[in-house]
Amino acid sequence: MKHVQDSTTLYNGVKMPWLGLGVFKVKDGEEVVETVKTAIQTGYRSIDTAKGYNNESGVAQGIRESGIAREDLFITTKVWNGDQGYESTLAAFEASMERLELEVLDLYLIHWPVKGKYKDTWRALEKLHQEGRIRAIGVSNFQIHHLEDLMTEAKIKPAVNQVELHPLLIQSELREYCAKHQIQIEAWSPLGQGHLVEHPLLQTIAAKYNKTAAQVILRWDLQNGIVTIPKSVTPERIRENADVYDFELTAEDIEQINSLNENKRFGSDPDNFNF
Ligand code: NAD
């Protein structure tokens, strides 16, 4: 992988860029419009939003103003917890598509595994996929037991599982399980929400390559076959986060980074959330 536009191929043949821009907590309106435009101008082709981020309209405006053709972009959004269920997901999807100004979505994810709801939600995603409205369907924050439960009834298996993943939470078992089932793992909060960019070991490794700790983490994702979606609203950092193709971590660097694992979450626990 040599370039910010390089892609992984999901098991259904759809190509998804390895690196994208996350826009959680980016304000709708000018902030998200400018952020999306800067990222696309930098070369990003994948944007990760959600109904729950309340910025789908601004994402659409940023895409429109970027001048890049729709078919060259990969757009992800997610069904919010309160919208889960079969009919309500179908309605939530149409509302997201209207805000995003899209006819066809690249990837639609179940945002969180809401108990008693996610299987009905999945049936709605399968229908939309079969109708050609969504190119790939997947989940987010699913543990192994959620995936196994979902697959007892699913007709189509998830193409992606987007989970919290960074050097303090390396998710070895889930990664192994997903690899076995050809479910692409995607890292959310890859930089630990910014907490990891001053980590001493990551900075030491970064210094060897004249790179930053953020770049080392993102490179660690890519070399491990993990799709990654760092968030920044700062043009310099948006560029920095995509400038990870001119160096290669050694097996020893990767081992050292893996050894930082503490199973530490900065976000919510998928087995214990109440929203
Ligand atoms: P992140 O790990 O990407 O960290 C972002 C923060 O790190 C920024 O706000 C900034 O403070 C800092 N930062 C970014 N680049 C930097 C750089 N080069 N140098 C120094 N500091 C830098 O955190 P995130 O936004 O929580 O996660 C990324 C994306 O993942 C989100 O925007 C969203 O799209 C997705 N996400 C999904 C879920 C989910 O439940 N599916 C949950 C959280 C996030």
Task: Provide key terms for this protein.
two-stranded antiparallel sheet, single chain, binds nicotinamide-adenine-dinucleotide, globular, 275 residues, alpha/beta, 10 strands
Question: Would you write up a description of this structure?
Answer:
The chain has an 8-stranded parallel beta sheet with strand order 3-4-5-6-7-8-9-10. Strands 1-2 form a two-stranded antiparallel ribbon. It has one domain (7-194, 226-232): Alpha-Beta Barrel (TIM Barrel), CATH 3.20.20.100. The chain is an alpha/beta fold. Helix 3 crosses helix 4. The protein is globular and about 55 Å long. Helices cover 39% and strands 15% of the residues. Nicotinamide-adenine-dinucleotide (NAD) binds at residues 22-24, 48, 111, 140-141, 162, 188-194, 197, 214, 229-232, 237, 240-241, 267.
Our estimate of the beta-strand percent is: 15-25%
- Shape from CA axes? globular
Note poorly predicted spans: none
CATH homologous superfamily?
A: NADP-dependent oxidoreductase domain
> Any guess at the CATH architecture?
Alpha-Beta Barrel
Radius of gyration, Cα only, in angstroms?
18 Å
Compounds present? nicotinamide-adenine-dinucleotide
Mean pLDDT: 98
Strand order of the largest sheet: 3-4-5-6-7-8-9-10
The N- to C-terminal Cα distance equals: 38 Å
Instruction: Report the count of strand segments.
Output: 10
| Class by SSE composition | alpha/beta
String of helices and strands: EEEHEHEHEHEHEHEHHEHH
Task: Using the coordinates shown, work out and report the CATH topology.
Answer: TIM Barrel
* Helical fraction: 25-40%
Largest sheet: 8 strands, parallel
- Whole-number tally of structural domains: 1
Family: Belongs to the aldo/keto reductase family.
Domain NADP-dependent oxidoreductase: 20-262
Organism: Paenibacillus tundrae
Keywords: NADP, Oxidoreductase
